[in-house]
Design brief:
This protein is of the alpha+beta class and about 280 residues long. It has two domains: about 1-95, 3-Layer(aba) Sandwich (Aminopeptidase), CATH 3.40.630.30; about 125-270, Aminopeptidase (3-Layer(aba) Sandwich), CATH 3.40.630.90. It is built from eight helices and 13 strands. Helix 7 links the parallel strand 10 and strand 11. The protein starts with a strand and ends in a 7-residue tail after the last strand. Bound molecules: coenzyme A (COA). Coenzyme A binds near residues 76, 79, 80, 109 and 110. Coenzyme A binds near residues 77, 78, 81 and 107.
Length: about 280
């Protein structure tokens, strides 16, 4: 097996893999990953035929790995492990001190052999929330981005300006901001997918008691579509609120880490989208 960098011409192949697995990836997910780092996504090849992929994303102090899929008939031969090792080497070369991923249960043994440890469950939720426009919530605008980026960096632990900017510009009507006395208490963004809206990210930095208002206000802007999102089980406030508001748990995976003994995630990360983008 050979490993090479993914090009934009590989995106059709990448989407065929995610579709086969029933994942809800869309073209812009891969376009943005390549824009963020054109060297961080990899294609596995055998006899010049593409047989798999994996993506590594460096945020500087830490990295994330995801989109690990092999064409079915090539599984079970150690290729997945080699792709992972390649991604980890790449992140190391970019200075990552630790690496995060979300693992489906079946893949946990593979990641454990590479040294990853389970941190907590990463929940996937979906459902409908009763909509209610709130006077405390307004549209998130470009002029808010500098303040948003600073809050986001504090809660997420790194700068993900490219993903925030692209999510907002593709779905401006889904960017909502909770403001109290002129201070930002939280914000959320969303993206329209095939038949549903993905809520992510959702970050709260104060006035957690008003989290329900921004969620309901967001629901008033999704045009009746189902909302899907992710949340770490350690974000107890968020899990409780999302479930009490009408979302139910569809599945869960394991948030795993390599290179750190303990991992505390911020309480302010109320919703995550893809594990790679947080
Ligand atoms: C995950 C995946 C890329 C592994 O590729 P691979 O070449 O088969 O992996 P390796 O041969 O190096 O290692 C085998 C390990 O893969 C994992 N695995 C096996 N079947 C799997 C499956 N259907 N889904 C996920 N992981 C699986 C197991 O941990 C297995 O170890 P074990 O035999 O001790 O149980 C491949 O199984 C796959 O494409 N799965 C579907 C997509 C997916 O679930 N991706 C991972 C998301 S976290």
């Amino acid at each position: 097996m050979e490993i090479r960098e993914m090009q934009s011409s590989d995106i059709d192949f990448a989407l065929s893999l995610t579709e086969e697995e029933g994942w809800s990836s869309i073209r812009s997910d891969f376009e943005e990953l390549l824009l963020f780092d054109q060297h961080g996504c990899f294609i596995a090849e055998e006899d010049d035929i593409s047989i798999g992929m994996a993506c590594a994303l460096s945020y500087g102090p830490f990295g994330t790995l995801g989109n690990m899929i092999l064409v079915r008939e090539y599984r079970g031969k150690g290729y997945g492990t080699k792709l992972m090792e390649h991604g980890l080497e790449y992140l190391k070369s970019k200075g990552a001190e630790f690496t995060l991923l979300d693992a489906v249960s079946k893949a946990v043994p593979l990641y454990e052999r590479l040294g990853f440890k389970k941190v907590c469950r990463s929940l996937r939720l979906r459902g409908r929330v009763e909509p209610a426009v709130s006077a405390k919530v307004r549209a998130l605008e470009d002029k808010d981005m500098l303040r948003i980026l600073s809050i986001d960096r504090e809660q997420f632990g790194a700068n993900r300006f490219l993903f925030l900017g692209s999510t907002l510009s593709a779905n401006p009507e889904l960017g909502r901001l909770l403001e109290v006395d002129g201070q930002i208490a939280g914000f959320m963004m969303g993206s329209r997918r095939h038949g549903f809206v993905r809520l992510a990210p959702w970050v709260m930095c104060s006035h957690f008691e008003l989290a329900k208002s921004i969620l309901k206000d967001f629901a008033a802007h999704v045009g009746g579509l189902e909302i899907r999102t992710g949340v770490l089980e350690t974000s107890r406030k968020s899990v409780g609120l999302l479930k009490a508001s009408g979302l139910y748990q569809e599945s869960s995976s394991w948030r795993m880490v390599l290179g750190k003994d303990r991992m505390d995630f911020s309480d302010g990360l109320f919703a995550i989208g893809s594990p790679m983008r947080g």
